[in-house]
Design brief:
This protein is 10% helix and 39% strand. With 166 residues, the chain is mainly β. It has a single domain (6-135), classed as Roll (Pnp Oxidase, Chain A), CATH 2.30.110. The longest helix has 8 residues, at 6-13.
Length: 166
């Protein structure tokens, strides 16, 4: 859980706050340029990165039962680069969600939430994908296999010598 300073916490909990909460979405896949989007009506520059405004709806996965939880994101289908990335990527895309306040867009108040986007559907109106936390507890560790043919040094037996009279 992220610690929030008193003014930020007061703004979030205020009934009529002066600052809007803005969701920042970063979508990336190997071999493609990273897409940065925000749920806002104008571009946002946060920590040196420009986020393009798009209409979107975001539901985060439940953090309680990571293995079975899934969220969802639906984005307006206006970015041809994003469509190309999604159509040519197998196994999903990496999605990073963050939330900032409009008065201080360089301070992340919620997140970052690194997720994987899968079950992607594209139509002429929007792009939808299910969001999953990476199931790190069930990943094989180490990822590589050690066999005598790939790592012979691990399988060489040292010559054991005995000390005379010992």
């Amino acid at each position: 859980m992220r610690d929030l300073n008193d003014p930020t916490l007061a703004e979030i909990l205020a009934h009529n706050g002066q600052q809007a909460r803005i969701v920042l979405v970063t979508i990336s896949a190997e071999g493609y340029s990273t897409g940065r989007y925000c749920r806002n009506n104008e571009p946002i520059t946060s920590r040196g990165n420009v986020f393009t405004p798009l209409r979107m709806a975001v539901e985060l996965p439940d953090e309680g039962n990571v293995k079975e939880s899934q969220g969802k994101i639906t984005i307006d289908n206006v970015s041809q680069a994003l469509v190309e990335m999604i159509r040519n990527t197998f196994g999903g895309v990496d999605v990073l969600l963050e939330e900032v306040l409009s008065g201080d867009v360089d301070t992340v108040i919620a997140g970052p939430f690194p997720l994987t986007g899968r079950n992607i559907s594209i139509n002429r109106m929007n792009i939808s994908m299910d969001l999953f936390y990476e199931d790190v507890l069930n990943l094989a560790f180490p990822r590589d296999r050690f066999t005598p043919s790939t790592t012979p040094g691990l399988f060489e037996f040292a010559e054991i010598t005995t000390i005379p009279g010992g």
